[in-house]
Amino acid sequence: MSSGAAREARERFAAEARSQRPDLAALCLLLAAEADPDLDERAMDWAQIELDRLAGMLPYGLRGARAWASAVTELLGGRLGFHGTPADYERLSSSLLHEVLRRRRGLPILLSVVWTEVARRAGAPVYGLALPGHFVVGFGDPEEGVVVDPFAGGASLGAGTAELARAPREPARTLDIVLRILNNIRAWASARPEQSAVALWALDLSLLLPSHPASLRYERARLLVERAEFTAGAAELEAYAEVVDAVDPGAAARIRAEAGSARALLN
């Protein structure tokens, strides 16, 4: 992807994130374009069309959460074999929607995006559920509906499941899902120092979301220093220190000291 195309993709990502009803699939594809230079407009259209095609494979006239959960799971987890494996945690492609559609493998949250986007297109009462350390899909009423695990091919989670018992069944918001995907990518990259460029674009996109942890600015500044971009990293540390100073002068002083150390590395 050219620099102009990359800039346009980021502008579209930011605009979509700030729209009244952000499109989850579109955001996931614009996110994936950062990782895959071959993911152009035509390839993004294919992914959207594929989600439509899968939705069209579901039966007509479904009624009730259990019927929807059963039909979507039979199609995606059964006939088409969408599921995850431990090895998928080692691949960046497991966090990219177009690759998950192609490979039918991915992380729990991306498989859940496929489940929810396909079901939503068919008219199902569906939503993502962010559990501690896992992501699943619910159908019907959030408190009483059916919950399935796309990573396990759509296996049903009973009400007594420990994960469900510990967390309220609150449907995940689109932008929270996108931020969680970007967090996963940053975690993947942080374990691989040679992938610092991936961590950087994941941070950049996270900061384009209208709501994000302020600490991401600090993390980005630290990453720039680690990448030997000392001047830019120091400038961002100093800018973040100005923000922190109003609530924690001691922390701000420590951050300014970090900026000074970064500038010293230029000598």
TrEMBL record:
It holds the Pfam family Transglut_core2. InterPro entries: SirB1_N (IPR032698). It comes from the Bacteria. Residues 50-163 form the Protein SirB1 N-terminal domain. Belongs to the UPF0162 family. This is Transglutaminase-like domain-containing protein. It comes from Streptomyces goshikiensis.
